[in-house]
Amino acid sequence: MPDTNHLIRALRSASDGRGDALFATDTTGTVTTYADLWDGAARMAQALVSLGVEPGDRVVMQVEKSVAALQCYLGTVMAGAVHLPLNTAYTASEVEYFLTDASPRVFVCDPARQAEMKTATREAAVAHILTLDADGRGTLAEATGDAAPLPAAIPREAGDIAAFLYTSGTTGRSKGAMLTHGNLVSNAVALRDLWQFTADDVLIHALPIFHTHGLFVAINVTLMAGGQILLHRSFDAAAVLADFPRATTLMGVPTFYTRLLDQPGLTRQAAAHMRLFVSGSAPMLTDTHAKWHDRTGHIVLERYGMTETCMNTSNPYDGTRKPGTVGLPLPGVEVRLTGADGTPVPTGEPGDIEVRGPNLFAGYWNMPEKTAEDMRPGGWFATGDIGTVDADGYYTIVGRSKDLIISGGYNIYPKEIETLVDAVPGVVESAVFGVPHPDFGESVAVAVVRLPGADLKDEDLLAAVTPDLARYKHPRHIHFLDALPRNTMGKVQKTELRRIFGGN
Predict the structure, then answer these.
(1) What pLDDT, in 10s, does the model give residues 98-138?
(2) Homologous superfamily of the 404-502 domain (CATH)
(3) For an engineered disulfide with 10, which of 133, 185, 396, 450 has Cβ 3.0 to 4.6 Å away?
């Protein structure tokens, strides 16, 4: 099949002529070769084209993780359409918003939820509703089984849209970030080369595939290297650890690593076959870094990305990995820190993170005003994150601009306080956030998770941290919780904490 489709050509390149090579093995032992993968994807592409899918049409998918789901992603791109995955936890009412906003030609959901989604699909006037379950069964599978492979991928250029990913919507309605073929190719190539992925790599894949991390990083990088994945439908610490002897790499979120540390079988011997552990989507505690290195001999590699840009920075594969930092800009990606007036901030001082490069998205779907609001002169994008950079050029994320606490006119960066709180004996982790104050505008609140059995009280915590903080940074409200609220990628939901404890 001649590839005139920019993304498909790049994803297929490492497996051309290697159809018998393994692509995936799932937890049941079922194997998928590269020939199987691409044949199924081409059949899905033909099924979509037969339904009237044209270049640029959106194909929305809310299904459980499976090889068939990955073939749907690849088949959608082959058909010249736009892949739009949705979190499987979204309710029917949430799905209705996305369908109405994206106006897809096709919506694929789990057969068990088809009836539940009828109102959503009707209100959004979706032309075709197909089903696909975790075992690869459903009406999409039936249509694919009856279809011949698409003879050739529909031509698409680097600037054409390949996918939408919706942002979380914590500061308003969710925005559809449009990612081009060129965005995805450039980012995957940079990560493949930087992390030294080859056809010999075997990746433990336990991430969801409706997110940048699990799909456009883990899957695209593996495909471009011609490597293998061990496909886990969800994260189970014992099952993931059991795969270490036959794997080389793991991509995860900090929660993966904390739960693996609870496994008594996690030893240097158990991790001896692994060459790389990557963490992202949320900051990893320094304590977790230290414990992981002590138990396994490995230093976790942290990186930084977002929906609109895929990955921006990474600690090096070869060279110094600095725990607590997200490393250096990727090749071809520029990063800068600016103050409120748009001018650069001094080294070591916090500033707004702006990026530009071939990874930068094409804008928000149907939101030109929001796109323009987040863009800066010269092609720079305002990420909404606040960071610092050290003398070696390593970046550290200190918070989100929306998480910045302004109390009595003073700027307070939650990360500074969280670092001190997390170091208090008996503390597992913390989250600092602002709550309304009638005089100062906001005051500092902190949610704290204690170690089981730890007899830690408000006064103990305050006594430990306040000597190192200016008075205006002192926590005024302390809430002990069993766990911090998180989204599916492990990010702490401070918006939820503010809602619960701040009345907003």
Answers:
(1) 999 999 999 999 999 999 999 899 989 999 999 999 999 99
(2) ANL, C-terminal domain (3.30.300.30)
(3) 185
Matching residue, tokens 């068939």? 68
| 406: amino acid identity, one letter | I
Beta strands in 253-379 (DSSP E): 276-279, 301-306, 310-314, 328-329, 334-338, 351-356, 375-376
CA nearest neighbour of 431 among 257, 285, 292: 285
User: What is the CATH architecture of 33-180?
Assistant: 3-Layer(aba) Sandwich (3.40)
Assign 346 to helix, strand or coil. coil
Rounded to 5°, the CA angle 248-252-254 comes to: 130
| Token pair for 266 | 């996690």
Cβ(13)–Cβ(224) under 8 Å? Answer: yes
pTM of the entire structure? Answer: 0.85
Q: Phi-psi bin for 415: left (phi > 0), alpha (psi -120 to 50), beta? A: alpha
Domain boundaries, the chain: 33-180, 404-502
Backbone angles phi, psi at 502, to 5 degrees: -115, -5
**Cβ-based neighbour number of residue 50 at 10 Å:** 14
| 198-230 tens-digit pLDDT | 999 999 999 999 989 999 999 999 999 999 999
> For residues 421 and 464, what is the distance between their CA atoms, to the nearest angstrom?
8
Other beta carbons less than 10 A from residue 238's beta carbon: 11
